[in-house]
Specification:
single chain, 224 residues, alpha/beta
Amino acid sequence: MEEFKVPKNPIQARLEAQRKANQSTSPSTKNAVNRAPSSQSGFHNIRVIPPVSTLSSQERSRGHLAPPNSNPITRPGGLPGRIPPGMAPSSSNASFPSINSAQRAGGSSSQGARKKVGLEPGCSPLDWARLNSSGQNLRGIFPNEFPLKVSKELLKNHKSQNDCWTVLKGKVYNITPYVKFHPGGIEEIMKCAGRDGTSLFNKYHSWVNFERMLENCFVGFYIG
């Protein structure tokens, strides 16, 4: 008569198969497993790099930091953008544009610079402007003679302080009433008496509008 076998529980059968498999593992495999390093032991071989020092070799040898600057620049009142009084630029060197620079309008030069002389009372530029617009006959000729055609010989006849003509850019002017108003003095303006004074005028007064200033002293045109 056959023996009746009760079928095994599937869970028990799986556990029994796993136990038999563990028993059949070779000793070399077990030793290899035992020799495997743990996850924690691997950190003992990591080399820690020290931080790089920013000190110089001399400072490291002294063993301390360099002392702070003993003379820091301070601003008066703690206001930003202020310069200490001792560091402010000298006013004598702070001229801009520099003297005689081309950036200065009408910069002085050795040729254009002339000294003014003291004028008599009533001979200021305002006094001349008042006389020039007064309606007086400053030409010194009759109205029906205007404008004259002045030759070189005729021009030479008018070279005294009381009868002074000159030529400025082809136009003849009677500068007799203006002589005492000249800022450079009578002696200087008389250098143009009875002759063409254009070159001297351009040398010293090129910026002056003589046509406006002497409009009522205009005599005529120079024909040479």
